[in-house]
Amino acid sequence: MSILYPFIGIIGIISLVTIGIEVLRWYFLFGVIIPYAALIAFIAGFIYRVLKWARSPVPFHIPTVCGQGKSLPWIKANNIDSPSSGTGLIKRMALEVLLFRSLFWNERVELKRAHQLLYRRNLYLWLGGLAFHWSLFIILFRHLRFFLEPVPSVVLVVRFLDGIFQSIVPVIYTSDVIIAAALIYLFLRRVTDPRIRYLSLPSDYVAILLLLSVVFSGILMRLFYRVDLVKVKEWAMGMLNFHPALPEGVGLLFYIHLFFAALLIAYFPLSKLMHMAGIFLSPTMNLKNDSRMRRHVNPWDYPVKVHTYEQWEGEFREAMKEVGLPVEKE
Amino acid sequence: MAEDEANQPEERLRIDHTPPARNWMAPGVEFRKGTYCYPGAQKHLNYLELPNPREWQPGDEDWKLPENWKEIVLAGMKDRLSRDRAFGLFLDICVRCGACADKCHFFIGSGDPKNMPVLRTELLRSVYRRYFTLSGRIFGKLAGARELTQDVLKEWFSYFYQCTECRRCSVFCPYGIDTAEITMMGRELLDLVGCNINWVIEPASNCYRTGNHLGVPPHAFKSTMEFAVDEIEENTGIRVEAPINRKGAEVLFIAPSADYFASPHWYTLLGYLMLFHEIGLDYTWSAYASEGGNFGLFHSKELAKRLNAKIYDEAKRLGVKWVLGGECGHMWRVIHQYMDTFNGPADFLEEPVSPITGTPFDNASSTKMVHICEFTADLIENDRLKLDPSRNDQWRVTFHDSCNPARGMGLIEEPRYILDHVCNHFYEMPDNTIKERTFCCGSGAGLGADENMETRLRGGFPRANAVKYVQEEHGVNLLVCICAIDKAAFPPLLEYWVPGVEVGGVHELVGNALVMEGEKERTTDLRGESLVGEEGRADV
Asked: For the whole model, what pTM was predicted?
């Protein structure tokens, strides 16, 4: 059920853009206004969400410790999974953000038969997630050539490397293939694994389907409906310089790709995709395991009612004296 | 008869981990006998001045909530969102990747899909979306948002009291989302309208009044200590001291109260007392701060702070230099991650230095409280203890990492180092079930009651299953742990799943192995069992 709505939505969006471009010829709306609006929504929403998190304090020191803490000098501490120094913490965060370390540990548990639980290393989610995120990053990086003039050589190098298999299969970027495969895997996993399907929400399908739509419209543009890239670049530079000019003769597919991309970035701050920023603020990850070495201050700490020693001794004084326990007041 | 059959382990292990086809969003919860805990008793709520004391049962239709319960809960949520980044962040950034799904012992043992950590959190997250996010307010159910109804509240009560705040899911989460944090918040919200469990409230109330969870008054505390001293004398011929409320001692020692009032904790207590005597530690117990554990943590941060305050207060009153803490799990979560923030700075104490070895405990330089395993490991490393590990030859030992020392503080190698020196037969359980990936006993965070035994047995199954593995592979007959809840929870659990495995503490084995100056020849261990090689000698 929850998967049906997003599907209908995607088809609706394609029809909408088709009518808007082919019938109504609202080029300015789809080529200029919507991209600007989406970008504004993205930037403002992103900042708003991050500030909202940042505004609430971290009252307690709660890192999730995943290794030996620093204690006696002769016990080998694990400075990455239980970081006690700044470098350890940076390594922990970097491994998590760049290589998805926690997912690398993932395992699947199975009750093979009564009394036999099996734990099997399961790297599919790690692999799928890593493949998707890294190819997305490379694709976005490649897109910089539309927005920068002159194009930095590093962008060209990445683009060249990404296209290295083009000697075998023309016009195919490696990252395009990987991202499509990874997204399809992540989508199928959500649909076919009964547990993941059970815990998935419509919004989870929205995110994947939106990404898939952006990716496929992009790939199609390269493969079948070639778009004049010089015109696209002129448009992109114009947008960047606030002198928007409509691209001539780029065709419907470009507008569909652009519209999906705009939707995605506008949706970004409203959604779970904000995990991109959130991970850096996660207090179980970004704190050192040094809470007995350095005091963590709670900014809203307030005095609480306690049962004092005097109250306590007041209740038990006679009995204490009888058994010879020392008392403060005779 | 039919019930007996259903209670057999094999029957309980017919677990289906495939969730139903029906969507989870319609709240539905059934309070079946054996699966839930009784609610907090009125008199204890009154004593602690907590909201809405009343007579009720989770199975009742009417939970006698205050008329404006919904406003109270939502206001509480708003307040906590603004005061704790982790709460809002963890509600916002989950992508439902499902990595945590089969990491929870309650899910593995029960197959109940709402025990998948992600879904346990969705129970609360859905309400958060409805009232605190734009997409939830606009798109409602489509965006995964739910109205807060009494049924939803009941569901919270059921599932936040089927979480032991063990943090195992957090290890596997790519963002470190910690269900323990969510459960803590969920329980705080429930508490605002008076929904909590007696197995948390009564110990907390006892602890507030008498100084310890079990409600042991000071004179009884003294006599139980004397009893322990007598027992040690009987076993070793040496009369140790157990000073209480002694001003001017160098060290204040605080253990969980179960250590001096429950079995098999008792033998760990004997081990502490023997060790302190042998090294001549200048120390004292306190009858006022006679509890290291903190059931307040399982209710709210505020109650945790109220109970925790007496540790520093007593250290100050007695004029000690630093504090030493015994074998306990969540006690160490509180001490390692919360105490300094709650009730510090402990500027009236000194940075801890072992008076025996001169080793400074730099890792505790601010909080000024040292774990007994750190302390003892340092003694052994500096060769200050004479140990005869063969006195533990009756045991084939495995070590259970308690959740909080492992994932809350990173105390992993110290107890292993000690065990390495005090016993000859030590075997690790499979890697997926130890250290940072350790499985909870299933009874932590206040769930160790009798009435919820079904839930406890299921939650404890993954751990027990790993114990069964080392029992079959290596003949393990003793599970050693450093947590008082473990020591109370495991005996019935293992008797059910893995008959033939006993439960003990690290310092029990230290006590057995410790060669004390002037001791008589020992023929039994601290449990009064004949030592290996000693059996039958009495008959000769």
From this structure: 0.95
